[in-house]
């Protein structure tokens, strides 16, 4: 069994991206499953091109993309990617699509086919704040989650895919009043726990992790 873990490069004026830094710190094996780590660009469509090349170059059972979500206080396992790019800020090459479909003839949305609730439970049991999220935003993080769904549907059949958002690390939150942060060691531990949950099987759990609003 093999999992591809990807992290985005820094964006939005940040010096680092904790998603990438945590991915880099993961071991090469978790729960008997090989872990391959890679960087992808925070760029609409180019991120998907790099991801497609990575998936085509090897055989993976799982792919987990990881991204930064400044302002969130927990590790967030994303449930769904929607077919829209709507950028409040430019990506790393200056692209700023507004109300643009990711794929003009694509599905409205793709749900992660990973055991998302079991991944959340595994992180919580490891002592890491975590929750199931029903919105990956409309920036490049949502873009790559949707694109992974499209790839699994049309090219890499049988691929299990998902996305995890992580908070700022303390050095990023410094000077940003009221913005939460999480130590990089905890973010790495959360990713480790999520991957370990994948190594235990594909079935999800029936646990009330929905949102009221």
From TrEMBL:
It is found in: Cytoplasm. One of its GO terms (biological process) is proteolysis. GO terms for cellular component: cytosol. The active site is at residues 78, 141, 165. It catalyses: Release of an N-terminal pyroglutamyl group from a polypeptide, the second amino acid generally not being Pro. Homotetramer. NCBIfam families: PRK13197.1, pyro_pdase. This is Pyrrolidone-carboxylate peptidase. The lineage of its organism: Bacteria, Bacillati, Bacillota, Bacilli, Bacillales. The gene is pcp.
